[in-house]
Amino acid sequence: MNPHSLYAKSGIFVLCLASLTLVACSSKTDNKPPKKTPVVGVMTVQASSQPIVADLPGRTNPFMISEVRPQVGGIIRQRAFTEGALVKAGDLLYQIEPAPYQASYQSAAAALQKTQATLTTLKLKAGRYQELVKINAISKQDNDDAQAALLQGEADVAAAKAALATAKINLDFTRVVSPITGYVATSTVTPGALVTASQETALTTVQQLDPIYVDVIQSSSDLLKLKRDIASGKLSHTAQKEVAVRVVLEDGSSYPHAGKLKFNGISVNTTSGAVTLRAVVPNPEGTLLPGMYVHALIDVAEDKGAILVPQRAVSRNTRGEPTVLLVDATQKVVQHTLETSGAQGDQWRVTHGLQPGDRVIIDGVQGISVGSEVKAVPFVATANTQAAATPSTAHPAR
């Protein structure tokens, strides 16, 4: 066989084999499925009217407190209450030995009867002398003495009545009663103890706990900023006539009864630089006890154009600044740095970094980055996502 012919046939075979390989590779490349565009759930930002809620720390204090002290001295005969029990105003707490005061009362009553009997005699004598002096049967001096004795007798009766009233008051004070309705504390004395009038040590204490005071503190700088924002029109006064106060307990749970703000501090504490506010809160179940640490949520103003964004959509950059991912008009992912002023439920209140109409990515952030092209669909919250996003307590953003 001709060598040239053999080489020609081999070349044709190699050429055909290369062509088949290219066709196969081209066919394999063409069959590869196109890369899918990530789908993200977005929320369109909207401005709305929202209350400005101040989250302030504070402690509970009794609505009324009375330190019970004896007003007369003597031996304690009886303690008539159970420590820690609810007592009503006027209920007997202690009985002081009344016998000496009973005797003093009876003595004052007898003295009054004596002066009244003497006064009767003086009245009759003064009346007779007035008639006798007219006919010159007695001297004018004798009549003047009789009239003066009558006045003295009337004064003696008045003094005896006052002494009887004093004795009656002291006798009544042997019954030490509760001045207010409330819970009575432990007793500092037992039956048989000697007490003195207006002694320094209280026998016990009675505290009214329904309603109860919640005293909270607000920094003077925050108060000044709030007043400036209201004066500039950025915020407006709350429309409520009485500002509501919602209480969060120390364990983070919400207290079921709302109170009312009754007092704004008129001076700044020179040590803490804070102003004290006082709220009155119902306490029918006795859940709140004096001295408990609580948080008070108070609607201090209203923001007519507030922008809220779910906390789950906010992350932090390397500088610790809050950021969110958005979908712009070209369907690309962009990142915005935010400024926040606090939390409202499971949302942050945004003061800078977002505008109404912005589309914030809530779901599907895994696998995407800034500059990625995505497909945006409205985010629909489910029961699971709401439970995961809801915090136990709302606190201001720092």
Explained architecture:
With 398 residues, the chain is an alpha+beta fold. It has three domains: 43-61 and 208-389, Elongation Factor Tu (Ef-tu), domain 3 (Beta Barrel); 70-97 and 174-201, OB fold (Dihydrolipoamide Acetyltransferase, E2P) (Beta Barrel); 99-172, Helix Hairpins (Orthogonal Bundle), CATH 1.10.287. It has five helices and 20 strands. The chain has helices spanning 3-30, 99-134, 140-173, 220-232, 383-389, and strands at 39-44, 47-68, 74-79, 86-87, 92-96, 175-177, 182-184, 194-195, 204-219, 244-248, 259-264, 274-281, 293-310, 315-316, 322-327, 333-337, 339-344, 347-352, 359-363, 375-378. The strands form three sheets. Strands 1, 14, 15, 16, 19 and 20 form a six-stranded mixed beta sheet that branches. Strands 2-9-12-11-10-13 form a six-stranded antiparallel barrel. Helix 2 (99-134) runs antiparallel to helix 3. The longest helix is centred in the N-terminal third of the chain and has 36 residues, at 99-134. The chain is elongated, with a radius of gyration of 45 Å. The protein starts with a helix and ends in a 9-residue tail after the last helix. Mean pLDDT is 83; it is low at 6-18 and 387-398.
